[in-house]
Amino acid sequence: MIAYAVARGTAAHSAWGFGVTETRPDAQSGGPTDADAAVEALYLAHWDRLVRLSVLLVHDQGMAEEIVQDALVAVHQRWDRLTDPEKALAYLRQAVVNRSRSALRHRGVVTRYLARQQAPETAPGADRPVLGDSRRRMVLDALQQLPRRQREVLALRYYLDLSEAEIAETLGISRGAVKSHASRGAATLRPILEQLGPDLRTDS
Amino acid sequence: MNPHDPIPEPGDDRMRALFHDAVADVAPRDGLAEVRRRTRARRTSSARRWAPVLVGAGAVAATVVAATFLVSGWGDDDRNPDDRPPVAGTSTAIPITSAAGIYYVADTDSGPRLFREFQAIGTTTDPAERVLLALERLTADVGPRDPDYRTLWPADSFAAVRVEDDRVIVELGTDAALQGSDGAGVGRYGVQQAVYTAEAALGDALPVSFEWNGEPARQVLGLRVGAVVERDRSYDVTAPVNITDPAEDLAVEDGTLRANGTMATYVTDVDWALLQGGQVVRDGRALAVDITGPDARATLGAPGWEIDEVDISDLAPGDYVFVVSVTDVGQTSDQTADFSDTRTITVR
């Protein structure tokens, strides 16, 4: 079984596997509150995946960790206004994507500059297999070259395995727009897939 | 139960594998303790609102605690990004250089001004090394990418950097850096190039001490300097408008123009235009934005402007000049003065 299928199965169950309503602590005591427990549960279930999602969007692990942290704090702040706890994960995802986007606005110049600088080292000869780090960097660089919406749609679809409807909700765009960004983005990335050859695995 | 409705395509599974593989080597560091600290502190601060009513005498203590947290900045989502621990250079798994704001000089109708452009420098966790890497971009043998900018620092100007609690010590590497070649009036801008660039690299407002042969330098680039040189925040030091993105020679391939940058606090309107052969093909007015996060450190807290996604897909491929301009009303005199910054971009 490949990695994404495992991740999808576990994430769906672990997010809300805690009993906040049964064990409501007293907020005045300074002990953990509903919001604390919920945010911790969200952290445990989603921290790694959301940091990686943000890395796909901003290409920088330190910044990605900072973004997801900020998003978790934002969920905590808004907890009282989240009427449906099921919405918390959707809100968290949205916060990560939005914050990644605004972080990128002022980083665009650098990432594009880097992509240009690194291009000669990372483009392999046609007769050589693309391995490990350079393959990863190639994919991340290619993602950075995509228009922002396409990058977001592809990352949500192929990394988080969200449905079209979920992507539309997360990004605040129509399902038709999701479809068109996905197909244009995928068309751009497909040649890279071809170049990487048939033996790409995800069990590393 | 999850309503998955992807459009199945032959490449879908391999595309998934590609995305998962791309970040398979990213090992996020533990962030739970930090999230806890920030959210616990927040609750204490919100307690301030109800504590006086609910717990009477205990409210005094609660209020004091809350005030302490608020002053120290914890838990406030809008807290100053400068209060955060530095994160630049802490990435490990992804090979990435980090962005540094490098300050150069360009001539305007009102005299020289500092302009910043971003360059990629090596990633390091050592603040002194980060400052040195940034300062090395100031020397004449490296210099700006934008041909409108220049630098006053000769090659080999910077030998070493030490960061102390209250200052940054820059050891000069050549006596050519003492004399300068443009006179003290312009030398002032050269000295400030180094102070601005060092502070931006550090993300901290620390004055700079220049040393030559282990002794304090008394003259730098022809300007007499004291033991420490503070960042000169006078209105006539930095350009009132500066482009961050696009970078010089950027190739635009997706038919969309995006731009952003900084402006002086007193600037209200930033006008922009895209020109080909001197003819305006697009123009408009930029939106004012706040710059947050790590970028606010590199831009030293300056207010931002932004242009979000202008469609240029109908433009013929070729070179274009992107220009932003502001009118400075009465900062220097009753005369207005115009300032601009430009980047050449290539539409493909």
Query: Count of helical segments of chain A?
Result: 9
**What's the count of strands of chain B?**
17
Using the alpha-carbon principal axes, give the shape of chain B.
globular
Regions with little confidence, pLDDT below 50 for 5+ residues of chain A: 1-31, 116-129
What's the domain count of chain B?
A: 3
Oligomer state of the chains in this structure: heterodimer
Beta-strand content of chain A:
under 5%
Biggest β-sheet: strands ordered side by side in the sheet of chain B: 10-17-16-12-13
Question: What class, by secondary structure content of chain B?
Answer: alpha+beta
Our measurement of the CA-to-CA distance between the termini of chain A, rounded to an integer number of angstroms, reads: 13 Å
Explain how this protein is built.
The complex is a heterodimer of chains A (about 200) and B (about 350). Mean pLDDT of chain A is about 70; it is low at about 1-30 and about 115-130. Chain A is an all-alpha fold and about 200 residues long. In chain A, helix 2 packs antiparallel against helix 3 (about 60-80), helix 2 runs parallel beside helix 4 and helix 8 (about 165-170) packs across helix 9. Chain A folds into two domains: about 1-105, no CATH class; about 110-205, Arc Repressor Mutant, subunit A. Chain A is about 70% helix and about 0% strand. Chain A is globular. The longest helix of chain A is centred in the first third of the chain and has 25 residues, at about 35-60. In chain B, helix 4 (about 125-135) runs antiparallel to helix 6 (about 185-200). Chain B has helices at about 10-20, 30-55, 60-70, 125-135, 175-180, 185-200, 295-300, and strands at about 100-110, 110-120, 160-165, 170, 210, 215, 220, 225, 240-245, 250, 255-265, 270-275, 280-285, 285-290, 305-310, 320-330, 335-345. Chain B is of the alpha+beta class and about 350 residues long. In chain B, strand 12 (about 270-275) and strand 13 form a beta hairpin. Chain B is globular. Chain B is built from seven helices and 17 strands. At the A-B interface, helix 1, helix 2, helix 3, helix 4 and helix 5 of A face helix 1, helix 2, strand 2 and strand 11 of B.
